[in-house]
Amino acid sequence: MSAIEITMKSPTSTTTSAIGEIFANPRGGGGPVVNDVNVHAARTSRCQLSTGSYTYAFHVEGDGGKFTLEIFGTGSPATPTRTVDTSFGFSGWTFDFTVL
C-alpha cells in the first residue's frame, strides 16, 4: 500500500473544492475504493492505495475557475497533475493515475 496525497494548486478562488471518489481501473461496474475525496486550497486529501491504475472522478463546488490537482506518493518519477477550468463545466471531471 502507498500513502497517496491529493493537493490543489493555484485555485482562482479559496471557495473552490474538488469532491468525488477514487475508482480502480478498469471500472467495470465496481464501486469506489475511496469515498469522500474532498480537496481544496487549505485541505489535502490522503488515502492508502495498492499498486494499480485508478481514476479520481469528481465535481467542482464553490466559485470554480482554474486550478491544478497534484497526486503525491504514487511512486512515479513525475508527479501526476490535472488542470481544471470550470468554464468547461463543474461536473464530470476525471483524473487518471497509476500507483507503482
Gap from first CA to last CA: 10 Å
Widest sheet: strand ordering: 4-1-6-7
**Structural class of the helix and strand makeup?**
mainly beta
Number of strands: 8
Average pLDDT, to the nearest integer?
Answer: 94
Q: Helix segment count?
A: 0
Q: Based on CA inertia axes, which overall geometry fits?
A: globular
Q: What does the main sheet amount to?
A: 4 strands, antiparallel
Low-confidence stretches: none
The helical percent reads under 10%
Q: Tell me the domain tally.
A: 1
Gyration radius over CA: 13 Å
> What is the chain-wise order of helices and strands?
EEEEEEEE
Strand-residue proportion: over 45%
Structure description:
There is one protein chain. With 100 residues, the chain is mostly beta strands. It has one domain. 0% of the residues lie in helices and 57% in strands. The chain has no helices and 8 strands. The protein is globular, with a radius of gyration of 13 Å. The mean pLDDT is 94.
Overview features:
100 residues, mainly beta, 4-stranded antiparallel β-sheet, 0% helix, 57% strand, globular
Give a topology summary.
Layout: E1 2-9, E2 17-24, E3 34-40, E4 45-49, E5 52-61, E6 66-72, E7 81-85, E8 93-99
Antiparallel strand pairs: 1-4, 1-6, 2-3, 2-5, 5-8, 6-7
Give a short summary of the structure.
With 100 residues, the chain is mostly beta strands.
